[in-house]
Amino acid sequence: MRIPLRDQLWLLMDRPDNLMYINCLVWFAEIPDWDEVTRAIQTRMVEAHPVFHRIPVRRGRRWYWVDDPDYDISNHLVRSRLPEPGGRAEAEAYIAEQMAVQLPKGQPLWRAEFIEGYHGHEGEQEGALILFRVQHGVVDGIRLTQLVLGLCEHEDDSSLPSVGRDLAPSGGGILGAVTGAGAGLAKDSWGIARGVTGATLRFPLTLARLARDVAAPGRTLTRVPTRVVESLTDNINAENRTANTYRGVFRLLFEPRSPELSWSGKAHAEKKVSWIAGLDLAAVKRVAKVHDTTVTTVMLAAVSKALTEYLDTQGDRRVSDINLMVPMAVSAVGDELPEELGNHITLILMRLPLWVDDTDELIEAITTSMTRVRYSLEPHVNFATMLTVAVTPGPVAHAVIDLFANKTVGQLTSVPGPVSTVSLAGKPVSGMLGWVPMSGDQALGICIFSYDGTVSVGIATDAELIPEPGAVAGMIEGQFTTFDGWYDED
After folding, report:
1. Which residues are CB-contacts of 239 (< 8 A; sequence separation ≥ 6)?
2. pTM (2 decimals)?
3. Residue 59 CA from chain centroid, whole number
4. Predicted pLDDT at 231
5. N or C: which end of the chain has fewer CB within 10 A?
6. Does the keyword Lipid biosynthesis apply (predicted)?
7. Longest dimension (CA), the chain
8. Residue 309's CB: how many other CB atoms inside 10 A?
């Protein structure tokens, strides 16, 4: 089977110092029956999705999935045990060590590791972990989550929360969506004209804003062009698709490398991980209600404040914002996974404000940033760019990938999980989370995941650039208690 270009790109993004693997962790308060877990993986994952017994083979300039004649599931299932005392510290160190290990070449690109000796949960019994590692070319993170949940038994018939949206919901593909957007061009142009007119009438204020943005801390001369465009388009309605598309494409082309801070530098193979587990989702929803926003925006506000605190502790100069690479689904995830999994995502550059003390002001800035992406063709343009990069010669593709990745500090994703408890091999799943891969010289990956009334956050870092991800995790967790509504009663 010919590998689609959207998957071929992720295969090419592997590099020794930043493996393009998605890592998903499931933990239990009791040890499940590993034979039952193996049967579930064999029947619901491997047999249902042939890519798990295929290997990528290059023929000319294209890649193909080819059945592995020597496939044996035992090559992909590993049993291990944490060193004593088997707490969170030992689990984090072990998982970080595994994240730097490349899967064997010539075999299907996945592994599931059954890890015993875990005592980092609240129960008194010995618990266990399952660590899934899958190369991104096989499947994207949203569908991997759905795949892992498909191994489980659900206590009720409730479906997973809807994830993603079709970039071209009316049909006609991405090109059709771009063509159809022309229908709103006249309306958008009128909005742009009004925005420019307003900027002209408020010229002194607009000029002051331009000067402030360009002269803000961390702004080098290379950042002037994008700041000028952003300051001008700030006068245009945040739902103006044409203006937002120009703004997004301009940033994609001309945004410079991420500013030099304590976490800047060349990537290293060694990684470190940490995580937050058990955040009360109901409390996060209360905060969202108080600030008239969404759970995702509240989580991003906590990340912003935590990263601000981290940079402050490192003695870094103030920067008004950073860029994060955020995956966005290009098609809605249905209840049933297709036989051929693959990647159905694009990537966007999200501007995350920093050093904003007022929570309402911070939430408004994040909301506006997300709205501009939603009402634009930036995801479509980025998706087309990714497909183009996939067919370029290897050295050129790697250079382009690094160019775009290094405009950002790291990657961030948010995935909603089931609202009730699920079980695997008869044992309740205590929690789930993931760690997103990094690319280029990115130093940080953050994955937000909700499950059974709680929120977990997985933090992965370059061991040299951010040596203490646990400190970042603690800072994120500590921000919630400062938000209005956190301690309110339902």
Report:
1. 371, 375
2. 0.88
3. 31
4. 74
5. C
6. yes
7. 72
8. 18
Mapping DSSP to helix (H, G, I), strand (E, B) and coil, where does residue 388 land? helix
Q: Provide the token pair at 346.
A: 């694009």
- What pLDDT does residue 160 have? 54
**Which residue in 117, 86, 435, 408 sits closest to 272, CA to CA?**
435
The answer to whether 446 and 326 are in contact (CB under 8 A) is no
Contact indicator for 346, 386 with CB cutoff of 8 Å: yes
Q: Which of helix, strand or coil describes residue 489?
A: coil
Which structural domains are found in the chain, ordered by start?
5-154 (3.30.559.10), 271-420+431-481 (3.30.559.30)
Tell me how many degrees the CA angle 399-23-154 measures, rounded to the nearest 5.
Answer: 140
DSSP string, 88-135: HHHHHHHHHHHHTPPPPTTS-SEEEEEEEEE--SSSSS-EEEEEEEEE
Contact 473, 445 (CB under 8 A): no
Residue 245's identity, in one-letter code, is T
Q: Do 362 and 301 form a contact (C-beta atoms < 8 A)?
A: yes
The low-confidence residues of the chain, meaning pLDDT below 50, are: 162, 164, 169-172, 177-178, 181, 186, 190, 192
What angle in degrees, to the nearest 10, is found between the helix axes of 185-201 and 241-254?
Answer: 80
Question: Where are any strands of DSSP class E within 363-466?
Answer: 410-416, 422-424, 427-435, 444-451, 454-462
Q: Using CA atoms, how far apart are residues 389 and 96, in angstroms rounded to an integer?
A: 30
The 10 Å Cβ neighbour count of residue 282 is 9
418 preceded by a cis bond (ω within 30 of 0): no
SS3 string, 18-37, reads ECCEEEEEEEECCCCCHHHH
CA-CA distance, 441 to 160, in Å (whole number)?
Answer: 34
